[in-house]
Specification:
The chain is an alpha+beta fold. It has three helices and eight strands, in the order H-E-E-H-E-H-E-E-E-E-E. The strands form two sheets. A five-stranded antiparallel β-sheet has the order 7-6-5-4-8. A three-stranded mixed β-sheet has the order 1-2-3. Helix 1 packs across helix 2 (about 65-80). The relative contact order is 0.13.
Length: about 160
């Protein structure tokens, strides 16, 4: 961050708050909404002078190859204008697949009754991973049935979540 009264060096990033991932979500999610898609997940990984940005999209009618191609063009145009990624990168746009990531309350809400996998950020009573039936979702978190017991998990405890097979 830049301190009070200290100007950034030429070419330095002017993004003061948030991570690059959060910035990318903030740019891409509204665009996808206007196009009729939802952002399921966004993965960004950089290494040795090149980065990879993977964007997983969905909609009720499903996602086809033409959808991915069109959305890729739109995201590319947006990122060319906003230029949030330093250096070269590859953009991949695809559907979420059978092990779909669950990231938002709406994602969980859509899959009540389904089998899900949740990994906590921090272990609870020595346990970090839960797989079970998604029973309920509310603003605070989710409830699962795991080994015939109800387990409540707050959204801020969830490190990763996805549909389970």
């Amino acid at each position: 961050m830049f301190g009070e009264g200290v100007a950034p060096e030429p070419g330095a990033s002017r993004i003061v708050t948030g991570t690059l991932r959060e910035r990318l979500i903030g740019l891409i999610e509204p665009l996808l909404g206007r196009l009729g898609f939802e952002l399921v997940e966004l993965e960004y990984a950089s290494g040795r002078g090149h980065a990879l940005l993977r964007v997983f999209i969905d909609r009720e009618a499903g996602v086809g190859l033409e959808d991915c191609t069109g959305v890729s063009r739109e995201i590319s145009a947006l990122l060319d204008v906003e230029d949030p990624i330093p250096g070269a990168y590859t953009l991949e746009v695809s559907s979420p697949g059978f092990d779909r990531v669950l990231r938002t309350q709406a994602h969980f809400g859509r899959f009540v009754g389904a089998r899900v996998f949740i990994e906590l950020k921090e272990p609870r009573a020595g346990r970090r991973r839960y797989t079970g039936k998604l029973l309920a979702v509310d603003a605070a978190g989710v409830a699962l049935e795991v080994d015939r017991e109800r387990v409540a998990v707050a959204f801020d405890e969830i490190g990763k979540a996805r549909l389970a097979s």
